[in-house]
Amino acid sequence: MYNFFGPKLPNHIFRWNQVMRFAQLPPLANDAPHVLLAMNMYWEQFVNMYALLAASLRARGVRVSVLVNDGVLPACEKCLLVNNQPGISLHETDYRAVKKIFAPLDVQLLKFSQFINTDELPTITTDNEKEHALAGALRYFAKGTLTNESSANEVLGKYQQAAAITKQVMEKVLEQDHYDVVCCHHGIYIPQGIVGEVARQHNVRVVNWNVAYREKCFIFSHGDTYHHTLLSEPTSAWENIPWTPALDKTITDYLVSRHSGSKDWISFNRAPEENTKKIIQQLGIDPQKPVIALLTNVIWDAQLHYPTNIFPNMIEWVKATIAYFATRPDLQLVIRIHPAELKGTIPSRQLMLAEIQLAFPQLPSNVFVIPPDSSISTYVIGELCNVAIIYGTKTGVELVSSGIPTIVAGEAWIKHKGLTIDPASMAEYTAALDRLPVAARLDAAIIQRAKLYAYHFFFRRMIPVSCIQPGKSIYFTVQLNNLADILPGADLGLDIICDGITTGAPFVYPDERAGDAIPTTPTGAWLDMR
Predict the structure, then answer these.
(1) Which of 136, 138, 202 is nearest to 169 (CA)?
(2) Using CA atoms, how far apart are residues 389 and 321, in angstroms rounded to an integer?
(3) Among the three residues 406, 440, 460, which one is the final residue of a domain in this structure?
(4) With CB atoms counted within 10 Å of each terminal CB, which end of the chain scores lower, N or C?
(5) Which contacts of 382-385 are long-range, i.e. CB under 8 A and separated by 24 or more positions?
(6) Going by C-beta distance under 8 Å and a sequence separation of 6 or more, which residues neighbour residue 341?
């Protein structure tokens, strides 16, 4: 039998009893705000953060309930088909481990099984609900389509059933008690996506979060997953940051570190090949002809995280772009396949290189493909190119900050910010390609604006939490001496997160003022603000 935690809690799971035995949490007022932490699943890499949020909110006089799936869902985000092995199954023993983790924190623990009536399961009816179920199935197979999967209907059916169960659970949870906020990680897939959908239908505020790129940092968003909200974030949130040489150096140094990921805990190429001459020779490109770089996403990930725009999916975009460049022998197209296809937490089972080879058994002579396992630096390719074309990659933020003109063919966060070429139709996309090559790099004003956004994205939207310590692999630990370490005023990042959850304040870390005395919300202040 699979036991996610084993007979004992893993060493990286923080023991809250060690802190709480010497501390006393404040009593809850009758009208204390109520936060539902919809943890749902027993992810080892998320348990510590949920427990930290629970402790920090409870220490601020907030009533906290934690919702967990105690093994009743037929499918969820943890279920994966990797190397043709069965997905992870969940057991009651996992719930007992979670109960042990949260017991010292004076929170209410809710189990899915408390709210299920299999005779009255609702149907998933909205497009969003159906999309979350499909997204879960695609993630399970790590593919952008269910085609050619013999168990596709069975797996999709399980995710649809899991969506229906989650919908029933959340509706009953919200009916039986009052909640001011529902907070859960990611905000998409099953069950988190359905949790958010039901909360919004009941007019309950939603907060989503995830691990960010920078070490010890997290990204939080209001109302929906950050994959969506960053697309619509108003430019007024960042374009008026008072710029200084110090901030310029901060973002410039960090962007350079991104080449190897030395300051990140999410990186896919720790030892990149950065010798330009060697790369040119290895690819066989002509240094006298303009190079256009095309950067992909992971096929299933891109389809789930970014709504399609001009093209029905990313594969069709790549195929159409190759076909176009076959008519442009004056240009060279270098396609950099995302390293995460092979090096990500979930290795893709649908590979872009195979899709390209299927469509083009013989590539045009001016098209070159860098496979996902290549150590060639994406950033050197960017420096070599005249223009970059992206679909949804976050690398777009770095490209424009380096002065590289960039065409966005899908939905990337850098889009609609006055920094990129954003065609809205196939005709506009073709017209943008017809104008290649461009005469010059981006001008100083656009580069400056791009750096402003990059700084906002990497240093303000990514919120550092001082008590989080990187661990092995994808896990992180908590390091606390006593409860005072997480009280208001002890950690600015944690203050901003808790204020955002409780008051709806922006999840923006004022890094540009980090040296100033920044006021924080005192314990219990939210009760007065209600």
Answers:
(1) 202
(2) 10
(3) 460
(4) N
(5) 382/293, 383/276, 384/276, 384/279, 384/280, 384/285, 384/291, 384/293, 384/334, 385/291, 385/292, 385/293, 385/334
(6) 298, 299, 347, 348, 351, 352, 372
**11 occurs within a structural domain:** no
Looking up tokens 């008072």 gives 242
CB 454 within 8 A of CB 255: yes
* Model pTM score: 0.90
Tokens 């909360």 -> residue? 199
Asked if 48 and 477 count as a contact pair (C-beta separation under 8 A), the reply is yes
Same domain, 176 and 62: yes
169 within 8 A of 192, measured Cβ to Cβ:
no
Q: Which residues contact 260 (CB under 8 A, 6 or more apart)?
A: 267, 269, 270, 271, 272
Residue-number span of the structural domain to which 118 is assigned: 17-22+31-234+463-529
Kindly give the confidence (pLDDT) of every residue in the chain, 530 residues in length, as a single tens digit, with 9 standing for 90 and above. 334 444 477 788 888 988 888 788 889 999 999 999 999 877 777 899 999 999 999 999 999 999 998 888 888 887 777 645 455 555 555 788 888 899 999 999 999 999 988 777 777 777 788 888 998 999 889 999 999 999 999 999 999 999 999 999 999 999 999 999 999 998 999 999 999 999 999 999 999 999 998 989 999 999 999 988 998 999 999 999 999 999 999 999 999 888 776 667 655 555 677 788 999 999 999 999 999 999 999 888 755 555 557 898 999 999 999 999 999 999 999 999 998 888 777 888 899 999 999 999 999 999 999 999 898 999 899 999 999 999 988 899 999 999 999 999 998 889 999 999 999 999 999 999 999 999 999 999 999 999 999 999 999 999 999 999 887 666 788 999 899 999 999 999 999 999 999 999 999 999 998 755 444 443 333 222 22
| CA quadruple 385, 390, 396, 399: dihedral, nearest 10 | 0
Looking at the fold, whether 434 and 505 belong to one and the same domain comes out as: no
For the record, the structure tokens of 251 come out as 């973002």
Joined tokens for residue 247: 């901030």
Residue 371: which region, alpha, beta or left (left: phi > 0; alpha: psi -120 to 50)? beta
Query: Reduced to 3 states, what is the DSSP secondary structure of residue 38?
Result: strand
Residue 36, strand partner residues = 65, 182
Residue 415 and residue 478 share a domain? no
State whether 394 and 480 are in the same domain: no
Tokens at 492, concatenated: 């600015």
Residues belonging to the chain: 530
Q: Give the phi and the psi of residue 99 in degrees, each rounded to 5.
A: -60, -40
How many domains does one find in the chain?
2
DSSP state of 466: T
Beginning with the edge strand found earlier in the chain, give each strand of the sheet holding 181-185 in spatial order: 108-111, 63-68, 34-40, 181-185, 205-211, 217-222, 462-464
Collapsing DSSP to helix, strand or coil, 369 comes out as: strand
Looking at the fold, whether 128 and 276 belong to one and the same domain comes out as no
Give the whole-angstrom CA distance, residue 113 versus residue 93.
14
**Residue in the block written with tokens 């932490």:** 37
